[in-house]
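Tokens for chain A. Residues wanted.
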């Protein structure tokens, strides 16, 4: 008998349900503000923190899978040049893609 399959918690610890910290970085030394928006935060912009060298960063807890996102640099959309790829969202606009494993 496989107790894992018969357990009421089956799937609780699967890769699809675990969350892990993912770091995002954006080089924008002249920017006054940089935000991160994606399907993982319902496209609500999250302020990123600026470092002295002009890089901006944010850490987000994310689950396994592919996620869409973009940066907002002083309010203007910007793709991530270091993303896993680029896809089109439901509004047919290009967004960056990240794969979380």
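Reply:
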């Amino acid at each position: 008998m496989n107790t894992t399959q018969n357990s009421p918690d089956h799937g609780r610890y699967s890769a699809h349900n675990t969350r892990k910290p993912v770091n995002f970085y954006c080089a924008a030394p002249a920017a006054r503000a940089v935000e991160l928006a994606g399907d993982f935060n319902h496209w609500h912009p999250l302020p990123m923190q600026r470092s002295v060298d002009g890089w901006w960063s944010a850490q987000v807890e994310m689950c396994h899978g592919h996620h869409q996102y973009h940066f907002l640099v002083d309010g203007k959309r910007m793709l991530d040049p270091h993303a896993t790829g680029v896809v089109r969202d439901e509004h047919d606009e290009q967004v960056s893609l990240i794969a979380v494993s």
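The domain at 15-100 is CATH 2.60.40.10 (Immunoglobulin-like). The longest helix spans residues 3-6.
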